[in-house]
Amino acid sequence: MKANVGSTDRLVRIVIAAILAGLYLAEVVSGTLGTIFLVVSIILLLTSLFRFCGAYSLFGINTCRNKPE
Asked: Residue 1 and residue 36: Cα distance in Å, rounded?
């Protein structure tokens, strides 16, 4: 797995994950929508930690500064 998520992209993903998880934990959203928010926040957090996004690789997107040769 080559990294395809850049620094700015990682930061945005972490912030969005924190917001979605916060909304779920504060019980602003609940039920099915709350569960979806929690799952999406976990996915965003994992993709930012591993610096790899499967959807990016499918569409050929790379936001890293050091582009593969």
From this structure: 26
